[in-house]
Amino acid sequence: MHAAPAPAAAPAASHTDPPAQSQQQPPLGLRPLEFAVHDRRTELLAAIERYGQAGTAVPEVWKRELAVVHWALDLVRQPRLLRELVS
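-> structure tokens emitted (87 positions)
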């Protein structure tokens, strides 16, 4: 006597299959503005330092942007001020 064939197994999920509904992650959003502004300040300060060490004049636009970045950091660190500005 022959045994009945085993039922076909469900196909294994491939890496291209979408995750199950319960495992689905939300879409990628934005990093907080404070982090982006802080990173820009770090980049500006590093570039200004490199120019200073090389004895090269720092572009005026960098100096102005640094002032704006400092203002923006103060603003995002004080949510009340930011709300007043955008409302």
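DSSP finds three helices and no strands in the chain.
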